[in-house]
Design brief:
Shape: globular
Helix content: over 70%
Largest sheet: none
Structural class: mainly alpha
Radius of gyration: 22 Å
Oligomer: single chain
Distance between the termini: 11 Å
């Protein structure tokens, strides 16, 4: 089977699990948001940023190294497992001891207990990295799709059950922990784990690659999650909760899609690294397909957010409308950037990735610090200012490595963007025409108008996309 067909097969199984998981996640998320307060979400958002930054360090980039290197021995895997266990235990202990400092910094004593309980993620991180990475390396995506679906189901149901019982922020904490435990148990049960061996000799090349990957991830996390930390320092927990829920709703579709694409793209590109012309063609095709799907979904969410927030979340979340509208508009740019970043990483050019992440790490906190003076609305507008500029700056180096020019990407995305603009205008026009219609019927009508407009304009402007869609559909049937 060709690499492309393996990738399509992987996408099929990953897409099935992600679609099911996405529907469940959306339903549960909306129910939980109605049950919990903005304050609960604000507290959890700060905790999640702290844990994600330090677990990213503890992973050492060794998972990606396992996938990327052409050959890896059992002895190397055992030493990698030992390094992961030692660093995760050490950093987990450090974060637990430092939890009172976080509570003092963000002026909330509840953070101490929440962070200390969340430290258990380090144990799951240490145990799951090697078997998960081996599954990616062997492109066992059907199994990984099942793992994602099962762990997502556990997370969602436990979170909902605890929120229903009035557990507050602990429903989010424990739901995520038990979901991670389920994922780890499933990965270990299938095999691929290695018994830890505490020695670094012979894995220097993995540590070198992983070190660059870790530095890039750290810069990414600090840059892209600085908004929550800055909000937590300068705004109320309720405002942080409003902002974090807006982000969650805007990024939930993209996170699921990008999780699937990255799982498939990294090993696929790694296997195509000796055939750059073929890779270049596939990346442009993927960009066009990504734009065709991402623009109507995310710009559609932005366009109907007043009705959606009112109906789905209720009146106490009305302040989330504007940030959701704004952030959803720029998420497609971020998604496209992730595709090219993953491809460059899979080619082993971590120097380019690290340079880009450092630029992001410097630029994003500055824009967020400027935006926070205008509260949640200012933070949301910071996304519109920062992300297009960063994409242009970062693409210069990535384009040289991949052999792709920015105008070629623009040509691939012209149809989806123009159709998206027409869709947005049609939705706003329809809203004015509908006037005082009930919220439910107005939302349904706006979605129908937007979808019809987008598909019609896209069909007129770029017929190539329909060829790509038919080719993908045919491949998925195989």
């Amino acid at each position: 089977m060709s690499i492309e067909r393996q990738a399509v097969s992987a996408l099929k199984w990953s897409a099935i699990s992600k679609i099911v998981g996405q529907l469940l996640a959306w339903v549960v998320t909306l129910l939980v948001i109605r049950l919990l307060s903005p304050d609960d979400y604000g507290l959890m958002a700060i905790t999640a940023v702290i844990i994600s930054i330090f677990t990213s360090i503890a992973e050492l980039g060794l998972g990606a190294s396992i996938v990327q290197f052409r050959a890896i021995s059992k002895n190397e895997l055992e030493k990698i497992a030992g390094a992961l266990l030692a660093v995760n235990l050490g950093l987990g202990l450090l974060v637990g001891l430092a939890a009172p400092l976080a509570a003092a910094l963000f002026n909330d004593s509840r953070l101490t207990d929440v962070v200390r309980v969340s430290v258990l993620h380090f144990l799951f991180n240490a145990a799951a990295t090697v078997p998960q990475s081996m599954a990616y390396r062997e492109m066992r995506f059907k199994w990984l799709a099942f793992v994602d679906l099962a762990s997502g189901l556990v997370t969602s149901l436990i979170t909902l059950a605890l929120a229903w019982q009035g557990a507050g922020v602990w429903s989010l904490v424990l739901g995520n922990l038990l979901g991670a435990a389920c994922r780890t148990a499933l990965l270990l049960a299938r095999g691929g784990a290695a018994w830890p061996k505490f020695a670094l000799q012979g894995i220097g090349h993995h540590l070198s690659f992983g070190g660059k990957m870790t530095a890039a991830r750290m810069a990414y996390l600090i840059g892209y999650q600085a908004d929550v930390l800055i909000a937590g320092r300068f705004l109320t927990k309720e405002a942080v909760g409003i902002y974090s829920v807006s982000l969650q709703l805007a990024t939930l579709p993209s996170d699921k899609v990008m999780g699937t694409l990255n799982q498939v793209a990294f090993p696929t590109v790694a296997r195509m690294q000796d055939d750059l012309p073929r890779l270049r063609t596939r990346l442009l095709d993927a960009s066009r397909l990504l734009g065709f799907v991402a623009v109507p979904v995310l710009w559609g969410i932005s366009a109907v957010s007043p009705e959606f927030v009112t109906l789905a979340l209720g009146e106490r979340w009305l302040d989330a409308i504007f940030p959701l509208q704004v952030v959803a508009l720029v998420i497609p740019v971020r998604m496209l950037s992730v595709v090219f970043t993953t491809s460059v990483s899979a080619l082993g050019r971590m120097d380019i990735v690290l340079r880009n992440m450092l630029v992001n790490c410097a630029w994003l906190p500055i824009t967020f610090l400027a935006g926070v003076h205008w509260g949640v609305e200012g933070l949301a507008l910071s996304w519109v200012v920062a992300h297009p500029v960063l994409f242009y700056e970062n693409f210069r180096g990535m384009g040289r490595v991949l052999g792709i020019r920015l105008r070629e990407v623009g040509a691939a995305l012209y149809g989806p963007i123009a159709a998206g603009v027409a869709m947005y205008g049609a939705v706003w026009g329809a809203r004015l025409a509908l006037g005082a219609e009930p919220e439910v019927s107005r939302l349904v009508a706006l979605i129908a108008v937007g979808a019809a407009t987008y598909l019609s304009v896209a069909a007129l402007l770029d017929r190539r996309i329909w060829v790509d869609v038919k080719r993908l559909a045919a491949a998925l049937k195989d």
